[in-house]
Amino acid sequence: MASNGEQVPARPRVDFGKAAADYGRWRQGFPPEFFTRLERLGLGLRGQRLLDLGTGTGLLARAFARRGCQVTGLDLSAGLLAEAREADRDAGLSIDYIQAPAEASGLAAGYFDVISAATCWHWFDRPKAAAEARRLLRPEGRLLIADLDWHLRPGNVIDKTIQTIRRHSPARPSTTRNVFQYPVWAEELTSSGFDDWESFAFTTQLSYSQEAWRGRIRASAAVGPVMNPATLARFDEDLARTLSADFPEEPLRVDHRVFALAAWGRH
User: Fold this and answer.
1) Whole-model pTM?
2) Fewest CB within a 10 Å sphere: which of 69, 96, 201, 231?
3) How far apart are CA 32 and CA 242, in angstroms?
């Protein structure tokens, strides 16, 4: 309830499974520079045993598998995991998937060299997920928390898209988004035994056709996972008009920012 006594509407439940088809078809993974920088940190190397938390449709899991890692993906959504398995078959890759929460995977302790969590750490009970990651990692293993996030600038594609979402969505999107929250998240990691860390961040642009960007946005937390079909259709039409009017060029050049933090415990 608000301080003036008015009832505050409950936040809608976010169900990415409702948008699994758009999620699998349109979402893009991290750019090549991300993996180049990870290699300098000793992450994503051939032969490493890697667990990808919140794997969704397996975008990051497949990227690591292509680099020779032995990958397991974990997610709560059966719909997203079904999309991941189909994409793996199309790519000729073999990845093990487990439907389980990041906070209680049920996997054996001390097995993995790397545990990754890409644009999903904010969805978890973070202290519990960190404790579970510490349990699952080998003594010298590392936890990778990463974000591929929208980079908001006045008047850019992201700005116009967020304005359009806010005209329709019951879950108003944040303009600050998900990037690692220092120092709170760092203190949580330290409490779970991750005493040291190293991070990097940079801005980049990803190319989308207008159709692909609309599909990508339908898979966003404040859109397809929370909207009913009629609202989603009205939103999609509104976004199509906005893009055609303000960004008629093809492809769109969409501003993003990349963040990564590798954390490990002293041993």
Assistant:
1) 0.91
2) 96
3) 30
Q: Which residues of 75-87 are buried (b: 16+ CB within 10 A; e: fewer)?
A: bebebbbbbbeeb
Domain boundary assignment for the chain: 16-264
Does CATH number 3.40.50.2000 belong to domain 16-264? no
- 96: tokens are 């093990």
Is the C-alpha dihedral spanning 79, 53, 203, 151 positive or negative? positive
Tokens at 192, concatenated: 């779970």
